[in-house]
């Protein structure tokens, strides 16, 4: 098996609000999909949005959850200025700033936001390991 993540599906409380955040707020390209689910194309994978209760039911787990989910999604960009700009764009679209962009212990620069459903995103610039469009 070749390791890869084909799709990340986020359970959301309000599909319309989540679609607006990702499509209009962050500019993710949306694919055609039924009204109960949304898919966005990413470079090499997809992001899916699905009702939190329905996703939990499909996986046969409890939909209850609070606090830190034990993971963060990460988006790497080419500069510190891009980190700050994307954090600002996310906040303008309805995200909550968790940690402003700043130099970090591993030598890069990053910050965090939570989307309207509380999913944690890191926006980072890693000067030691940048994968950009020209590298894909």
Automatic annotation (TrEMBL):
One Pfam family hit: Glyoxalase
Source species, domain of life: Bacteria
Signal peptide: none
Residue ranges annotated for the VOC domain, each copy included: 4-126
InterPro entries registered for this protein in UniProt: Glyas_Bleomycin-R_OHBP_Dase, Glyas_Fos-R_dOase_dom, VOC_core
CDD domains: VOC_like
Protein name: VOC family protein
Species: Sedimenticola selenatireducens
């Amino acid at each position: 098996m070749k390791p890869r993540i084909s799709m990340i599906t986020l359970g959301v409380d309000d599909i319309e609000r989540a679609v607006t955040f990702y499509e209009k707020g962050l500019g993710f390209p949306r694919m055609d999909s039924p009204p109960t689910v949304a898919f966005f194309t990413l470079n090499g994978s997809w992001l899916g949005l699905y009702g939190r209760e329905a996703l939990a039911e499909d996986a046969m787990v409890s939909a209850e959850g609070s606090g830190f989910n034990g993971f963060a999604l990460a988006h790497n960009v080419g500069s510190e200025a891009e980190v700050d700009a994307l954090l600002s764009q996310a906040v303008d679209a309805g995200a909550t700033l968790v940690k402003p962009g700043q130099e970090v212990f591993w030598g890069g620069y990053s910050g965090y936001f939570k989307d309207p459903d509380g999913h944690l995103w890191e926006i980072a610039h890693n000067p030691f390991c940048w994968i950009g469009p020209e590298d894909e």
